[in-house]
Amino acid sequence: MFATAREAARNNAGDIDTITLPSQLLPEKYSFSQLHSELASDETLSKAGVLENFLVLRSCLEHPSRLDREADDENIIDIIASWISKMILPDGSIIARDDIPSDSQSALEQALEVTQRLGLQGLKCLQVLLSFHSPPSPTSGINDPQILLSAITFTSSRDTWTSSSSRSIATNILSVYSHQTEASGFIIDFLLQSVVRPLFSKSKPEAVTSTGRKAMPSSAPPKRYNVSDASDPAQKPWKYTSPYSIPVFEWVVESSSEAIISQSWNLFIPPLLTLLDDPSTPIRSRGLSILSSFLPKFGRKLLEQTGLGEVFDDAVMPTLMFLPSITPADESVQLLGPAYEALFVLGDVRWGVKETGEKGREQVNQQDRMKFYDRVMRKGILMGYMYANEHPSIVELLIGEMGVLVEKMGVNAVKHLKDIIPILSALLTDPFASSPKQLLTVVRTLKSVILACWPRISQPAHRLTILKSLVACWKNIEGSQAGTEDLQRELKGVARLFVKTVEATQVIGTGCDIQGEVGALVEADSGLGELFGL
């Protein structure tokens, strides 16, 4: 019945993404039952065959006047949609494995291209097909949740099989059935229990019990690490055979309410810890981002009751040492940003604020929180800078995170001034600084340091070092207008803030004659007047 259309689709295989078949190549009349039996029922078709059928199916659906409607159309539409959803799910053919020769890269690229095309064309078919379905209501929707699962698979820009077009269509489909996708039954019973949990069942993090709580220390010898398990699809089906499980789990975390997570938190913990422990940089990085979304919904109370605060701390902190030369610089950047973000969120949730009746909100466990931040500063930022200061991209990232951390620590950061000020000074005074962008990050971090640690800034060692650094940086960029406008503006603001801050300490008897020191500099070099506003 569709032989002519199929042949045309086969002859235009390279243009399937951009064309629809002309009406003269399609039958004069056809029903949904015929579309199903002829085009959308064979699950053994090759991927090329599926793409051809998608083109014929979409072309037919875009000529609704030729459709012979029947009483059972709603059911047949559901069946066709289920078939499409199965055909577009990404599989293991697009995943690189250590036990597969590197010369298979071209095969991986071809498989990825086909998967991208299948996803886009399948979603286009779904979108048109579901428009023939009865409008969803609070009591009715899609009978097969697999259809929504497949749409979810294409909602993240982080997945190589997702394009902006497929993501847009998938998001539109899900928005139509939002009452269904927001239901706890869909999220917990279907996605978590039926999809995610079985795929992660063989990955059992030792840090937690089978119920998801923190495991007690064991005197038993550690399990032997089996290298072959690392790339064994049977041990990691979520990674090697069903890679869609990661965006699905990510979507679940982002879409779940606090109530849903509180109700079924133990279903989230094993896959989350598995992602955080994976050696693959993209997967670990994604796990860190998912953790940052998960923690605020999980909440301080559950972190305390389950002991998972320490578990997450132990899972994330080692990532701060994923630095060159052991880890390539570009991969370090991919990991460090999400790792610091996850630790900052963990600190906010674990030692945040709580209701205290008439007293309102107050800080709790301030001492433990500061110990945590001290550890992040020492074992993360300062040690990271010591090992990777030859890599500009990592230095810029670490200095930016230093500014965030100093703001969180407030005046408690003064204990680290002896390490922080020399680092910032070295970067500001370097005549061969890598870029205005990096210097801008350094200047903004210096601003955070001045605001947080102002009681100690006027001490001679710190004051003179900062003054020298501001002047040297200004002189280095003076006359270089191209690309330095923001830097110059920020530098002037910080220099004037610094002077005001030191002046403020004079009021409490710990300052010095900063105006005299600055005045002497301006007298020696009038160009510095613009820097200090004199």
Which key features would you list for this structure?
single chain, 534 residues, mainly alpha, two-stranded parallel sheet, two-stranded antiparallel ribbon, 63% helix
Tell me what the structure shows:
- It is a single chain.
- With 534 residues, the chain is an all-alpha fold.
- The chain contains 24 helices and four strands.
- Helix 13 packs parallel to helix 15 (329-350).
- HEAT repeats lie at residues 268-306.
* Helix residue percentage: 55-70%
Distance between the termini: 86 Å
Shape: elongated
- Tell me the series of helices and strands, N- to C-terminal: HEHHEHHHHHHHHHHHHEEHHHHHHHHH
Total helices: the number is 24
Structural class: mainly alpha
Relative strand content: under 5%
- The Cα radius of gyration reads 29 Å
Instruction: Give the strand line-up of the largest sheet.
Output: 1-2
Number of strands: 4
Nearest-integer average pLDDT: 91
In brief:
The protein is mainly alpha-helical.
Topology:
Layout: H1 3-11, E1 30-31, H2 32-39, H3 47-61, E2 67-68, H4 73-87, H5 105-130, H6 145-152, H7 164-176, H8 178-181, H9 184-199, H10 237-240, H11 245-255, H12 258-276, H13 281-306, H14 308-316, H15 329-350, E3 353-355, E4 361-363, H16 366-388, H17 392-409, H18 417-429, H19 436-452, H20 454-457, H21 460-477, H22 485-507, H23 514-524, H24 528-532
Parallel strand pairs: 1-2
Antiparallel strand pairs: 3-4
